[in-house]
């Protein structure tokens, strides 16, 4: 198939230098091998009127390698034909090939496709055609060379065409690269996605550095509990992984994360409320306000590392994507991941993958007559109509009660025969309530204000809040804490350094209090998270699998000193004092920021006969607790002695030869049931519940008599490397322990 058609017409008459009598005796059949014989003599006879013509000007002086061209030969006169070849400029060798496409054209009779012979009947002078396929790339320039033939005996000297050169091929740009769903141009460098290595694009192929990445570096991000392109966002700081709070978390923040990881980032989803499960460790960032162009999450505006008011139930997540999907609802178009309240005021909706997902949150009854609703997403509350446009915001969430209000009738207020201006504040006559004038209306606070302070009470001095407050009772009743300043030292408490307890809650929850220098104190909620709560719950022998870290004095403000602040537990510490902190007694808090926990004991159960040690400074000491009917309870110290302690330590797989028994709640008072009393072990029993005692639940004790043990000394059975056992439970459940170097040890759950 011809890919190009070129009409070639070159008049030879003006260029023929003479006639060559190359074959005076006639040309034999198959004379193609001697088309252009060497050593011939050239006469000076000119040919003014050439019978054939061939024009190559349409080549434009260049050829495309391998391209096929059509040549048209025109003839007139009595000459027999025209011999044609294309010859290399470099070595004069034939190049290219000819193909017969006309009845009046034939190829050379010696099967050489690199030459062609046309012939004429002397009568029929019709133009004839043949095709020429250009030589391959790299051949270099060539010329067409041809000679007129007369009577197959006389050849005219060969004529050369202009030089035809190989055309320069247009340079194609290198192909791009595809990596993690993102297209990169040749020469681009980009993150590998592991937060450590760098990749580059070279001619359509992605190459990456192969550096080993120990630990993590500041600003590195990763996705956890999802897949390659989605998960909970975790950030590295000071070689520690932490989470990001979802306050103000939006698509621009998600875009920065996805770009930093080298993932698709055009249309990411910003997910909140621990969509990919709750993380552990510190919460490093809160209130992020990325504009979407930052190269690292740490470049975005935020309120400071570890500054937050969140729990891990607010951990942020992302789905990295380049898919552009939208939702159309109630004549409004919503972008992928965008949330909005439903028109019924009851549901929260989110656009996900082009579809709406709505969840009913809360849908109260309509407001009664004479009231109006405050709407915030799906929450509604009702206020009297007199509160609308009175100058005071009652709809705290959206301020809707003070929107679209007419101009006020008056901007002054008359109260107790005194006139006040707009936004002017004043004390009510009793000196206790603070009042404000707005839009002609007066609104006063309603603080409790007793007439006369009792003994050991005084008035707080900060602001307008001046109630009488108990002084030096360990609780900050004044906003400024002045009621607890310059107080006498409290009597020493019967506790040891590092001991913890839960106060003002229940069996598994309460305000966290820590003993230091025989004084109970609280813990500030700055940086307080589930990792810190995990340590507390584990130290108390409660469930540490699903702890909740509670802040802002959830269980009420405590009293006494604030021992710890800015805790940074990783969740694996045995005692709260082992966690990083800024020093005992160093803090910038008040008791309104006391930390609490909920250990959620109900989420796990125990098995009968199981024992554990609670409240000790190490794993080998503590208050003895026994499981019965899936409930933990304590043991009374009546008749509690060293033989009982040895049974407990042996059951737990701990050293028991020099075990000691302790009573009178040496490791803190337990809560809940007291399972055993009057225990009298021989020291040889395998289980505490096998020892002689009163019936389970039959006792005459309270928790001030809770029994404890300290396990020490020898007595641990010999074991072989690699041997495993279950300790502290029963035949089918318990703590996993492994033997190495004739010593039993535990296995970390990380």
From TrEMBL:
<dbReference type="Pfam" id="PF00057">
    <property type="entry name" value="Ldl_recept_a"/>
</dbReference>
<feature type="domain" description="Reelin">
    <location>
        <begin position="17"/>
        <end position="180"/>
    </location>
</feature>
<dbReference type="GO" id="GO:0006508">
    <property type="term" value="P:proteolysis"/>
</dbReference>
<feature type="disulfide bond">
    <location>
        <begin position="460"/>
        <end position="478"/>
    </location>
</feature>
<dbReference type="Pfam" id="PF02014">
    <property type="entry name" value="Reeler"/>
</dbReference>
<feature type="domain" description="SRCR">
    <location>
        <begin position="221"/>
        <end position="321"/>
    </location>
</feature>
<keyword id="KW-1015">Disulfide bond</keyword>
<dbReference type="InterPro" id="IPR036772">
    <property type="entry name" value="SRCR-like_dom_sf"/>
</dbReference>
<keyword id="KW-0720">Serine protease</keyword>
<feature type="domain" description="SRCR">
    <location>
        <begin position="724"/>
        <end position="750"/>
    </location>
</feature>
<feature type="domain" description="VWFC">
    <location>
        <begin position="175"/>
        <end position="246"/>
    </location>
</feature>
<feature type="disulfide bond">
    <location>
        <begin position="472"/>
        <end position="487"/>
    </location>
</feature>
<protein>
    <submittedName>
        <fullName>Scavenger receptor cysteine-rich type 1 protein M160</fullName>
    </submittedName>
</protein>
<dbReference type="InterPro" id="IPR002172">
    <property type="entry name" value="LDrepeatLR_classA_rpt"/>
</dbReference>
<dbReference type="Pfam" id="PF00530">
    <property type="entry name" value="SRCR"/>
</dbReference>
<feature type="domain" description="SRCR">
    <location>
        <begin position="611"/>
        <end position="712"/>
    </location>
</feature>
<feature type="signal peptide">
    <location>
        <begin position="1"/>
        <end position="22"/>
    </location>
</feature>
<keyword id="KW-0325">Glycoprotein</keyword>
<dbReference type="GO" id="GO:0008236">
    <property type="term" value="F:serine-type peptidase activity"/>
</dbReference>
<feature type="domain" description="VWFC">
    <location>
        <begin position="411"/>
        <end position="473"/>
    </location>
</feature>
<dbReference type="InterPro" id="IPR001190">
    <property type="entry name" value="SRCR"/>
</dbReference>
<feature type="domain" description="SRCR">
    <location>
        <begin position="500"/>
        <end position="600"/>
    </location>
</feature>
<feature type="disulfide bond">
    <location>
        <begin position="681"/>
        <end position="691"/>
    </location>
</feature>
<keyword id="KW-0732">Signal</keyword>
<dbReference type="GO" id="GO:0016020">
    <property type="term" value="C:membrane"/>
</dbReference>
<keyword id="KW-0675">Receptor</keyword>
<dbReference type="InterPro" id="IPR053243">
    <property type="entry name" value="SJ_maturation_regulator"/>
</dbReference>
<feature type="disulfide bond">
    <location>
        <begin position="569"/>
        <end position="579"/>
    </location>
</feature>
<keyword id="KW-0645">Protease</keyword>
<keyword id="KW-0378">Hydrolase</keyword>
<dbReference type="InterPro" id="IPR002861">
    <property type="entry name" value="Reeler_dom"/>
</dbReference>
<dbReference type="GO" id="GO:0045217">
    <property type="term" value="P:cell-cell junction maintenance"/>
</dbReference>
<dbReference type="InterPro" id="IPR001007">
    <property type="entry name" value="VWF_dom"/>
</dbReference>
<dbReference type="InterPro" id="IPR036055">
    <property type="entry name" value="LDL_receptor-like_sf"/>
</dbReference>
<keyword id="KW-0677">Repeat</keyword>
<dbReference type="InterPro" id="IPR042307">
    <property type="entry name" value="Reeler_sf"/>
</dbReference>
<feature type="disulfide bond">
    <location>
        <begin position="290"/>
        <end position="300"/>
    </location>
</feature>
């Amino acid at each position: 198939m011809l890919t190009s058609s070129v009409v070639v017409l070159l008049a030879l008459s003006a260029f023929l230098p003479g006639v060559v009598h190359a074959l005076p005796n006639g040309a034999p059949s198959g004379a193609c091998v001697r088309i252009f014989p060497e050593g011939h003599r050239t006469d000076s006879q000119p040919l003014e009127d050439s019978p054939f013509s061939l024009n190559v000007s349409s080549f434009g002086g260049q050829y495309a390698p391998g391209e096929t061209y059509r040549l048209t030969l025109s003839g007139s006169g009595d000459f027999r034909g025209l011999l044609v070849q294309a010859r290399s400029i470099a070595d004069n060798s034939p190049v290219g090939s000819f193909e017969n496409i006309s009845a009046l054209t034939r190829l050379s009779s010696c099967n050489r496709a690199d030459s062609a012979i046309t012939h004429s009947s002397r009568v029929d002078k019709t133009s004839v055609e043949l095709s020429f396929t250009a030589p391959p790339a790299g051949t270099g320039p060539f010329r067409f060379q041809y000679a007129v033939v007369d009577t197959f005996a006389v050849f005219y000297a060969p004529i050369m065409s202009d030089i035809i050169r190989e055309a320069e091929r247009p340079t194609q740009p290198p192909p791009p690269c595809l990596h993690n769903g993102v297209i990169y141009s040749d020469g681009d460098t980009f993150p590998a996605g592991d937060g450590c290595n760098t990749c580059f694009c070279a001619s359509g192929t992605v190459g990456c550095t192969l550096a080993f990445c120990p630990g993590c570096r500041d600003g590195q991000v990763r996705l956890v509990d999802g897949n390659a392109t989605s998960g909970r966002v975790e950030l590295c700081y000071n070689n520690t992984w932490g989470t990001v709070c979802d306050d103000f978390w939006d698509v621009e923040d998600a875009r920065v994360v996805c770009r930093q990881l080298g993932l698709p980032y055009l249309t990411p989803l910003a997910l909140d409320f621990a969509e990919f499960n709750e993380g552990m460790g510190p919460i490093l960032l809160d209130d992020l306000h990325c504009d979407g162009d930052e190269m690292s999450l740490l470049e975005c505006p935020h309120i400071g590392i570890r500054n937050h008011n969140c729990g891990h139930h607010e951990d942020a997540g992302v789905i990295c994507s380049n898919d552009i999907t939208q939702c159309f609802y109630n004549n409004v178009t919503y972008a992928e991941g965008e949330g909005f309240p439903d028109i019924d005021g009851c549901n929260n909706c989110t656009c996900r993958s082009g579809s709406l997902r709505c969840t009913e949150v809360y849908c109260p009854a309509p407001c009664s007559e004479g009231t109006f609703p405050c709407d915030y997403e799906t929450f509604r509350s009702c206020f009297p109509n007199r509160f609308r446009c009175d100058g005071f915001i009652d709809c705290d969430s959206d301020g809707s009660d003070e929107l679209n209000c007419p101009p006020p009738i008056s901007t002054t207020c008359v109260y107790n025969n005194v006139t006040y201006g707009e936004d002017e504040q004043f004390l009510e006559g009793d000196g206790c309530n603070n009042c404000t004038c707005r839009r002609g209306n007066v609104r006063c606070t309603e603080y409790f204000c007793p007439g006369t302070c009792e003994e050991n009470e005084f008035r707080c001095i900060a602001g307008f809040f001046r109630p009488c407050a108990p002084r030096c009772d360990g609780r900050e009743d004044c906003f400024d804490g002045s009621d607890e300043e310059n107080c006498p030292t409290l009597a020493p408490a019967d506790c040891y350094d590092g001991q913890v307890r839960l106060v003002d809650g229940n069996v598994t929850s309460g305000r966290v209090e820590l003993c230091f220098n025989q004084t109970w104190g609280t813990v500030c909620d700055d940086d307080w998270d589930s990792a810190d709560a995990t340590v507390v719950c584990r130290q108390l022998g409660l469930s540490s699998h699903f702890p909740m870290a509670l802040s802002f004095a959830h269980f009420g403000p405590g009293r006494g000193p604030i021992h710890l602040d800015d805790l940074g537990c990783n969740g694996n510490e045995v005692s709260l004092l082992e966690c990083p902190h800024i020093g005992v007694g160093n803090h910038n808090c008040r008791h309104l920021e006391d930390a609490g926990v909920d250990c959620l004991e109900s989420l796990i159960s125990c098995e009968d006969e199981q024992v554990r040690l609670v409240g000790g400074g190490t794993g080998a000491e503590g208050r003895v607790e026994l499981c019965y009917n899936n409930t933990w309870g304590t043991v009374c110290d009546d008749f509690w002695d060293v033989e009982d302690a040895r049974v407990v330590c042996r059951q737990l797989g701990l050293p028991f030869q020099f075990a000691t028994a302790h009573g009178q709640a040496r490791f803190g008072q337990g809560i809940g049931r007291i399972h055993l009393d009057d225990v009298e072990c021989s020291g040889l029993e395998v289980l505490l519940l096998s020892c002689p005692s009163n019936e389970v639940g039959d006792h005459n004790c309270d928790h001030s008599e809770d029994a404890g043990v300290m396990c020490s000394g020898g007595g641990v059975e010999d074991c072989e490397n690699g041997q495993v056992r279950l300790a502290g439970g029963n035949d089918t459940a318990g703590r996993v322990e492994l033997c190495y170097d004739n010593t039993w040890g535990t296995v970390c759950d990380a």
